[in-house]
Amino acid sequence: MTNKVPNILVIGDLMIDHYLWGNCERISPEAPVQVVDVQKETTVLGGAGNVINNLVSLGANVCVYSVIGHDEVAKELRTKLDEVGAKSLLIEEPNRRTSKKSRIIASHSQVVRFDNESKNDIAPSSQALLLKELEENIISFDIVLLSDYGKGVLTNDLTKAVINCANRHDKKVLVDPKGNDYSKYFGAYFLTPNKKEAQEATNITINDEHSLKDALVKLQKVANLGVSVITLSEDGIAVLKEGEVTIKPTVAREVYDVTGAGDTVLASLGYALCLNKDIYDALEFANLAAGVVVGKLGSATVSLDEIEEYKSSLHKSSIELHIKTFDEIERLSLRLKAQNKKVVFTNGCFDILHKGHVSYLNVAKSFGDVLILGLNSDASVKRLKGESRPINCEGDRAYILSALECVDYVVIFDEDTPYELIAKIQPDVLVKGADYEGKEVVGSDIAKETKLVEFVDGRSTTNTINKINGVN
């Protein structure tokens, strides 16, 4: 992507998603219902809060405007927002119940959900305060996302006023809509209705490409959109731009739960557009993000690393994004461990890549799930091999190594040994060449185990250089 950190404003309905996780092995003797033995209880930000979670996970700076009640759930909301580092303007209305949705999950399936909330429109005074805050701060945001769950925050008047304000300052507004009257969102850049919502809003049954285009055209006309978008679940996302319909397909490895997938699409589209991606690249990015999220249970978030892993599994990954800094690989290693991935580490100069290198790396990868390669920098190679080395610069060496199927990540280090890097990664397996038999292997005190791998006879960078120079 880029090093730019987007500043994104989210306005919408905040709520707490409450989960009771357990097992079900019997039916109640009191009534024909399942008895769930609850094992654990969790709470996360829901509604517009899930959009916020996704934006934070992607690396954006996030601010949220909303209206909540004056109750214990509101306190919980404020705590959760503080924990993720989102700035907020939350207006409390004394007679309002802050939304809380409780779900009982048994054996990875949702059994029942019960809601406690207010759904009436927020007070005119609250709308005026939100709009005043927006007028004063709109220039500090790159984009505005409206997450409408129909709980009363995004009233008809407030929504139109927010979009007008953003348009006056050339800020795009993206909307996850609710209800059937999309004129409420007049002037937005685009909406993200799913197929069912689009059919209800347009009264058009979408059953082929022709009806899909008719629905997209009608949505664009009703809401005066910059582009018209409909999400199509497993079929991807359709977009109408300049009269042409394009469908960006998606691939989900396995769908566990679509809860929150719409929030992820809204967040990832907003994030990508802030980085000056065109609409088609932004849609592809959002599709990948959604593909990751539907493979998780419960409202979930997605990170850039997870998207890259997913792209790699679909053979779409960018080579450069497999080259990591020390800080990036440290964060990534923690996440891999949380996923119970077995991490393998090896290191070397890998100056002129040859069969011996590839064979060695392929064996190293076989010892675990993820292979991280520490690559000596140019300065480090010179100290080890002399002033005539390396033949290939560190950037070229890292790029070529990252393109190998057996290498997951490459990290360039400048020290004489990779000890500091190994300490950050804390690998399960440390791999070195068989020539280290009987010698101390740097980092073996950190890794859980050390393995030595035989080299392919007659294959080395020195031999290759000698051959080029005509030296026998």
From TrEMBL:
Q: Name one Pfam family in it.
A: PfkB
- EC identifiers of the protein: 2.7.1.167, 2.7.7.70
The protein's matches in SUPFAM superfamilies, at most eight in alphabetical order, are given as: Nucleotidylyl transferase (SSF52374), Ribokinase-like (SSF53613)
The pathway this protein participates in, as annotated, is: Nucleotide-sugar biosynthesis; ADP-L-glycero-beta-D-manno-heptose biosynthesis; ADP-L-glycero-beta-D-manno-heptose from D-glycero-beta-D-manno-heptose 7-phosphate: step 1/4; Nucleotide-sugar biosynthesis; ADP-L-glycero-beta-D-manno-heptose biosynthesis; ADP-L-glycero-beta-D-manno-heptose from D-glycero-beta-D-manno-heptose 7-phosphate: step 3/4
Alphabetized CDD domains for the sequence: RfaE_like (cd01172)
Instruction: Provide GO CC annotations from the record.
Output: cytosol
Question: Which GO molecular function annotations are given, in alphabetical order?
Answer: ATP binding; heptose 7-phosphate kinase activity; heptose-1-phosphate adenylyltransferase activity; phosphotransferase activity, alcohol group as acceptor
Q: What is this protein called?
A: Bifunctional protein HldE
- What does the organism's lineage look like at the top? Bacteria, Pseudomonadati, Campylobacterota, Epsilonproteobacteria, Campylobacterales
